[in-house]
Amino acid sequence: MADLKERLLPPKPQSAINIRDASYRPSASGRQPFQGMDLSGLKKRGQGLRSWIRVDTSGNSQIIEVDKFTMMRRCDLPARDLRLLDPLFVYPSTILGREKAIVVNLEQIRCIITADEVLLLNSLDSYVLQYVVELQRRLTSGVGEVWQSEGPELNRRRSSRGFDNVYGSTSPDYLPFEFRALEVALEAACTFLDSQAAELEIEAYPLLDELTSKISTLNLERVRRLKSRLVALTRRVQKVRDEIEQLMDDDGDMAEMYLTEKKSRMESSFYGDQSLMGFRSNDGLSASAPVSPVASPPELRRLEKSLSIARSRHESMRSSESATENIEELEMLLEAYFVLIDSTLNKLTSLKEYIDDTEDFINIQLGAIAV
């Protein structure tokens, strides 16, 4: 058998033989190689630990190291949702409402929002740090003020749509935690895109005017690069606008994003079941086994059925009323930023039309010279 193995397998290189011998040869100190080393750390290093910034409902922040599978269990998310937050990949802007979390991917802001915390990928980007600082300021002050870098346009639109009462309220509990965290993310993305559009406008109009006065290869190349940037920015703005509009058109998706209400309903249902089990135990019945309809007294079965029906009706009425109110709150919140991002899109559309008109003028001039 050994002879057959030697004939079939190629000879090992000398370097591999030396490495194998060295791995089993004692060193001068008498210790085996790799002895005392923490080899489990090599396995941990390959588990994909990532640094996250955690902000709780009180505004306290901390840096935590969590791997992908722990984060999936913690937030009850599938792996495909976490891939949207991967900084190594470029995904279009997305807002997803899940059972226990909201996954937000808006420009530089990539985070997971739950009813108790915000988990943000740790980054040195200035907009990420500004998001954390702004969220902490709002949670600690309890006043829903607007993003400092945004202009008066959004404030005017909010006032015209009755947002003064919402954002001027000093009550920290007017909006649930997840909506306030989502609002800061929307503000950061919309103001960033609006500033990018404003910078493009400042650069574009003088360049186009120069091109009309002097047609040259250099000016044409500069306009071509400008147009490429305009197309890329328009696509990003359009995606954010479509994402907000899609959420506003689907009441089910908006209701799914109310995490605080769902958590409170689950807790009340759990405590209601616990109290019912305690009621059975006090009457001498087993709390672990189901009540037999034959062995149970008729009065107890009727009372249990009445309590169950009353609790289910109360929970359904309360959930439907609160869902309607919260959908209206979230819809108003999304509508404000839809108006802002739509204004940014109109700026870019006007700029594109100006570029097209300039190109038509240049073609007319070149045609007249050729004739």
From TrEMBL:
Keywords: Coiled coil, Ion transport, Magnesium, Transport. It is found in: Membrane. Belongs to the CorA metal ion transporter (MIT) (TC 1.A.35.5) family. It is a multi-pass membrane protein. Its main location: membrane. One of its GO terms (cellular component) is membrane. Transmembrane segments: none annotated. GO terms for molecular function: magnesium ion transmembrane transporter activity. It comes from the Eukaryota. CDD domains: Mrs2_Mfm1p-like. Residues 223-250 form a coiled coil. This is Magnesium transporter. Magnesium transporter that may mediate the influx of magnesium. It holds the Pfam family MRS2-like. It comes from Gossypium darwinii (Darwin's cotton).
